[in-house]
Here is the input.
Amino acid sequence: MTRLDSSINGLLHAFNQGDEDAFKKIYSACWSKVFSDAYSRLKNKEDAENITQDVFITLWEQRGKQDIQNIPAFLYRLCKHKTLNYILKKRPALLAEHELEMSTDISPAYQLQFKEAGAIFNTKLKHLPPKQRSIFKLRYEENRSTVEIAQELGLSVKTVRNHLGRAIVTLRNILKLFLAVSTAVFI
Here is the structure.
């Protein structure tokens, strides 16, 4: 653990008690690292800033609710999770944008890897249980809220969230592959 991590974790008790000054210190000390992590995955400043803000909002909302032992590690995991979910949600638009860029000046090997990753994603999506697949598509392809999906399908919001969570866990590894391929392609 670095010296900075130790000093940030020293604020943990005060933060968990709702101390806004402790939160501000954590925010100041960790913002650039969280932004950097998000930017390295998204390669878009505005999206990375939005993810970073969302990470800190979630951190504040989770104070006292989560058993956070290491704030920097918690922020890293939260950033990674939110970034992957963002990519999953925006997948069609991101894929189209990447394909356009790839078609102009990227080697055929990288194009093939990216297309193969897309094919694997679509195959995994098709093999999700029918209820998970339909909820996933309603949420991420039709941009419906979990409340709208729950009402349409006659399910509770919690059930919809559980199905989405399971689908995301199943698809997460292929999203990591997309990130690896797209990072290699666009470096």
Q: What stands out?
A: The chain has a mean pLDDT of 78. The radius of gyration is 19 Å. The CA atoms of residues 92 and 141 lie 8 Å apart. The first helix runs from residue 3 to 9.
